[in-house]
């Protein structure tokens, strides 16, 4: 099998049969590692991981002992992947009918007075419509006179008032729709944006997208139309029943009571199942969004491993489950339609029987009887449509229910601002001293990942943080930013407990350069200065410092050049340098580098280290280094082991410490790099 390894880690190169060195998109060197070394090709020197990828030979045959290697990191990832299967929580689903709270919340979101006014105006419009038909029937009963203009004018007035009422109704409903959608969307957005990171650990992104996409789409478009039709149908039924009752002089009221009871029972039975079926349909929609988002972000990986068929089958499976639940919804609608048609036919039969029975009788005139027959035909459709709309509205209200569940039940992280405690902007921290006292932290209900950690960091010190996988390095940075709260202990910055200030004040006082540089789909200017509070001169100054000015000037729109999703139109090194430029603009007193040089070439690595040394001299810098050589010039090294403080001193002291963890990590890194224990003599040079 041909294996192609694309890497910046040159210690793997001696194991390769051939090496290709590229520069500017071209092959500049090709040959074996030894041949290229003899030609003087400089691959760069790198000290590798602090034990994070400690190689462990696989026991077995001689052949197996030479090539296959398993890393501790891979074992940990496999274990975490298996654990992650039980991490995702089951999506919540309400049972039974939608609570009245959802209806009232929706009405209040757009304005309760506006919603009530809409209902009343809709009823007024229906009243004018019924009155106009009554006027026609009354006119038909009158003897022929020359005073037709009077009847025409009254009929025109009633019709015009109906048109005005419906116009006002439409305007009020449109305004209510806009307000309600904005309010509910704002509540959902605020709740999700304020959610702690732990929420996203246990919630697939597809569920969140389903709320913002499918559920909000129903609220924006379908629900308002259904409510409008439902209210209109309600008044149509009331008007038709009233008209028939008046035309038949109350005779229609005799079968109305049992018919109303039957309609009520049918819609009760239907609503009980239809709401649950719609909830199931909404829940089965989430995996479709999850599958799509995963395939979209992992397209290159899927194609590289030729797993298109597996992902296609997974998508088909998700669609089949969703379509099965949707089919049940349609079958339930057919069940309802059959029974409503039967009741509607009975109403028409009853009115027809009255007409035949009263033939030749002056009890009801022909004009009023015709009016009753006309409305009996209409009321059948009105009642059928009304029951359907009640069920449809409840089905669509499940989307409001689902959105409000996120808006109300996601526990937010700590407050963004605490007015009485937050320091004034720009006044804190002044020194950058960090004091950690008995700090303990766990993720969700898991075991402690930091255990009684205590360390004192002076302002302006450069601290390297090392430790094997699972030692708590990244967790230390997480609690520093309060991404996850401490279970116990205190973290103070310049003698101020970080738990007593708002998250905005804390996080704005810190800067981070992450391992994976984060760029947003906007412009270069926005990614450098998202708050637009820096001058263009300041932007170009920091770009000069990170040696990106020429590259940005070469772009067609320079600072206004669009940044693709994830910054894909920039190289990995350029994205990293943009993140450093962003940190430089903020001039922080505390800078955190979370494995910031793990996946870039040595030249850019050296440039980044130079930038940090030159531009953050006065700042406190905490660095989680993926390569030990990046922290050997630190003031102190913080060694973590199983969440506890193992060692904390200067590099020289730790290298002289017998049986020291840091010394062993450096030795192991150098042995792996050269493949010989003779490299241990290089420790004296360090």
Automatic annotation (TrEMBL):
Q: What is its main location?
A: membrane
Gene Ontology CC: endomembrane system; membrane
For molecular function, the Gene Ontology terms on record are:
ABC-type transporter activity; ATP binding; ATP hydrolysis activity
The annotated topology with respect to the bilayer is:
Multi-pass membrane protein
ABC transmembrane type-1 domain span: 127-395
Q: Which UniProt keywords apply?
A: ATP-binding, Membrane, Nucleotide-binding, Repeat, Transmembrane, Transmembrane helix, Transport
Asked if Metal-binding is a keyword of the record, the answer is no
What SUPFAM superfamilies has UniProt attached to this entry? Answer: ABC transporter transmembrane region (SSF90123), P-loop containing nucleoside triphosphate hydrolases (SSF52540)
Specify the ABC transporter domain's residue ranges.
Answer: 434-667
Pfam families linked to this entry: ABC_membrane (PF00664), ABC_tran (PF00005)
Instruction: State the Gene3D superfamilies in the record.
Output: ABC transporter type 1, transmembrane domain, P-loop containing nucleotide triphosphate hydrolases
Q: Where is this protein localized, as stated in its record?
A: Endomembrane system
**Superkingdom field:** Eukaryota
Instruction: Name the residues that span the membrane.
Output: 150-171, 234-264, 340-358
CDD domains for this protein: ABC_6TM_ABCC_D2, ABCC_MRP_domain2
Q: Does the keyword Nucleotide-binding apply?
A: yes
| InterPro entries on file | AAA+_ATPase (IPR003593), ABC1_TM_dom (IPR011527), ABC1_TM_sf (IPR036640), ABC_transporter-like_ATP-bd (IPR003439), ABC_transporter-like_CS (IPR017871), ABC_transporter_C-like (IPR050173), ABCC_6TM_D2 (IPR044726), P-loop_NTPase (IPR027417)
What family does the database annotate? Belongs to the ABC transporter superfamily. ABCC family. Conjugate transporter (TC 3.A.1.208) subfamily.
Q: What is this protein called?
A: ATP-dependent transporter ycf16
- Report the source organism: Corethron hystrix
């Amino acid at each position: 099998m041909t294996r192609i390894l694309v890497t910046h880690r040159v210690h793997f190169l001696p194991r390769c049969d051939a090496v290709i060195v590229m520069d500017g998109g071209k092959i500049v060197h090709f040959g074996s590692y030894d041949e290229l070394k003899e030609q003087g090709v400089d691959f760069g020197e790198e000290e590798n991981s602090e034990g994070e990828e400690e190689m462990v030979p696989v026991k077995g045959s001689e052949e197996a002992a030479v090539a296959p290697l398993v890393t501790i990191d891979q074992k940990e990832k496999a274990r975490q992947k298996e654990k992650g299967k039980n991490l995702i929580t089951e999506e919540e689903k309400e049972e039974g009918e939608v609570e009245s709270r959802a209806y009232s919340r929706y009405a209040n979101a757009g304005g309760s007075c506006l919603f009530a006014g809409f209902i009343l105006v809709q009823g007024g419009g229906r009243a004018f419509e019924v009155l106009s038909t009554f006027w026609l029937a009354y006119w038909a009963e009158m003897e022929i006179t020359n005073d037709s203009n009077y009847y025409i004018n009254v009929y025109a007035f009633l019709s015009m008032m109906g048109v005005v009422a419906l116009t006002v109704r439409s305007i009020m409903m449109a305004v209510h729709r806009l307000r309600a959608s904005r309010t509910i969307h704002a509540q959902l957005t605020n709740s999700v944006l304020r959610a702690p990171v732990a929420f996203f650990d246990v919630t697939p992104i597809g569920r969140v997208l389903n709320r913002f996409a499918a559920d909000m789409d129903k609220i924006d478009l379908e629900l308002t139309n259904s409510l409008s039709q439902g209210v209109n149908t309600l008044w149509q039924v009331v008007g038709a029943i009233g008209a028939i009752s008046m035309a038949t002089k109350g005779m229609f009221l005799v079968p109305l009571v049992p018919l109303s009871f039957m309609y009520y029972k049918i819609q009760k039975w239907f609503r009980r199942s239809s709401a649950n079926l719609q909830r199931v349909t909404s829940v089965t929609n989430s995996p479709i969004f999850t599958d799509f988002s995963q395939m979209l972000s992992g397209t290159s990986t899927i194609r590289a491993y030729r797993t298109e068929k597996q992902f296609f089958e997974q998508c088909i499976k998700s669609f089949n489950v969703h379509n099965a639940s949707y089919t049940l919804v349609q079958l339930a609608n057919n069940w309802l339609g059959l029974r409503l048609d039967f009741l509607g036919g009975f109403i028409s039969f009853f009115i027809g029987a009255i007409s035949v029975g009263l033939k030749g009788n002056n009890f009801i005139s022909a004009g009023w009887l015709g009016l009753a027959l006309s409305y009996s035909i209409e009321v059948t459709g009105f009642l059928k449509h009304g029951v359907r709309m009640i069920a449809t509205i409840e089905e669509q209200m499940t989307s409001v229910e689902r959105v409000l569940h996120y808006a109300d039940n996601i526990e937010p992280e700590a407050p963004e601002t605490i007015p009485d405690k937050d320091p004034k902007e720009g006044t804190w921290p002044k020194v950058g001293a960090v004091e950690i006292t008995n700090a303990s932290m766990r993720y969700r209900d898991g075991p402690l990942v930091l255990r009684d950690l205590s360390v004192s960091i002076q302002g302006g010190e450069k601290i390297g943080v090392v430790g094997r996988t699972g030692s708590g390095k990244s967790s230390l940075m997480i609690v520093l930013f309060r991404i996850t709260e401490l279970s116990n202990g205190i973290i103070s910055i310049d003698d101020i407990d970080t738990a007593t200030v708002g998250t905005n004040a804390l996080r704005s006082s810190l800067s981070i350069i992450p391992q994976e540089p984060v760029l947003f789909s906007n412009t270069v200017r926005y990614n450098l200065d998202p708050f637009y509070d820096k001058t263009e001169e300041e932007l170009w100054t920091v770009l000069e410092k990170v040696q990106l000015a020429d590259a940005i000037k070469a772009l067609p729109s320079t600072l206004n050049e669009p940044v693709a999703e994830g910054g894909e139109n920039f190289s990995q090194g350029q994205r990293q340098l943009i993140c450093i430029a962003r940190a430089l603009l903020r001039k922080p007193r505390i800078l955190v580098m979370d494995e910031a040089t793990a996946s870039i070439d040595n030249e850019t690595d050296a440039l980044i280290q130079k930038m940090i040394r030159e531009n953050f001299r006065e700042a406190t810098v905490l660095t989680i280094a993926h390569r030990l050589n990046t922290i050997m010039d630190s003031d102190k090294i913080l060694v973590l082991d199983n969440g506890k403080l193992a060692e904390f001193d200067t590099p020289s002291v730790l290298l002289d410490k017998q049986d020291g963890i840091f010394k062993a990590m450096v030795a192991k890194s150098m042995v792996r790099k050269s493949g010989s224990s003779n490299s241990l003599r290089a420790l004296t040079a360090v």
